[in-house]
Design brief:
Number of strands: 14
Strand order of the largest sheet: 3-1-8-9-14
Number of helices: 4
CATH topology: hypothetical protein yedk fold
CATH architecture: Alpha-Beta Complex
Structural class: mainly beta
Strand content: 35-45%
Order of helices and strands: EHEEEEEHEEEEEEEHHE
Helix content: under 10%
Distance between the termini: 25 Å
Oligomer: single chain
Largest sheet: 5 strands, antiparallel
């Protein structure tokens, strides 16, 4: 799964990397983004824009928003068929922007947090889906989920899943609202090139979502 990630690049610096036409939301940098928090994501509704969503998808048909805590990830292999995700897969796709993410490796001494990022140091887009939910009182809640896939050879010793990182040349197709055939999109949802990625152990300081700041991504001294 993907349960924590880093967002440190300013929104304005993301603009050329994601071909943004508008920035509709900006958030403070976070080195420990956790579920239920707001994230930044790129959407294309005729305009390529950066928007904010709460992490944890709440299907439009849900009776209450608490279900979102169980919907932070969706399996890329089955999202197009699952009732919770299939409509969003066809009509509401996004790129959740990140600079890196964490996974926890099972070691004899316990779980070790590992920070994974691109060797280039650039931010990247995680394949995501977003949804709109209306409360009985008319409140609008916009939420998202991150798609995961099988791990590449870098991630395999760390975890059995990894988030889907979409290279820039695939952004247009993924975000295109006119493309609604899952068969046209499924080939995009594969493990990212491991040779373009790097990973290193970090301290257990990151284990608590209350902890934030650059210390989260400092290499472990142990």
């Amino acid at each position: 799964m993907c349960g924590r990630f880093v967002r440190q690049t300013p929104a304005r610096a993301m603009a050329p990397l994601f071909d943004l036409e508008r920035i509709d939301a900006e958030l403070e940098p976070s080195y420990n983004v956790a579920p239920s928090q707001d994230v930044l994501a790129v959407v294309d509704d005729g305009v390529r824009r950066l928007r904010a969503f709460r992490w944890g998808l709440v299907p439009f048909w849900a009776e209450e928003p608490a279900i979102g805590s169980r919907m932070i990830n969706a399996r890329a292999e089955t999202a197009a068929e699952k009732p919770s995700f299939r409509q969003a897969f066809r009509q509401r796709r996004c790129l959740v922007v990140a600079d890196g993410f964490y996974e926890w490796r099972k070691d004899p001494q316990g779980k070790t947090p590992v920070y994974i990022h691109l060797r280039s140091g650039q931010p990247f887009g995680l394949a995501g889906l977003y949804e709109r939910w209306h409360s009985p009182e008319g409140e609008l809640l916009e939420t998202c989920t991150i798609l995961t896939t099988a791990p590449n050879h870098l991630l395999r010793p760390i975890h059995n899943r990894m988030p889907v990182i979409l290279p820039r040349e695939h952004h247009g197709l993924w975000l295109d609202p006119s493309v609604q055939d899952p068969q046209a999109l499924q080939p995009l949802l594969r493990p990212y090139d491991a040779d373009a990625m790097a990973a290193y152990d970090v301290s257990r300081y990151v284990n608590s979502p209350r902890n934030d700041g650059p210390r989260c991504i400092e290499p472990s001294q142990s």
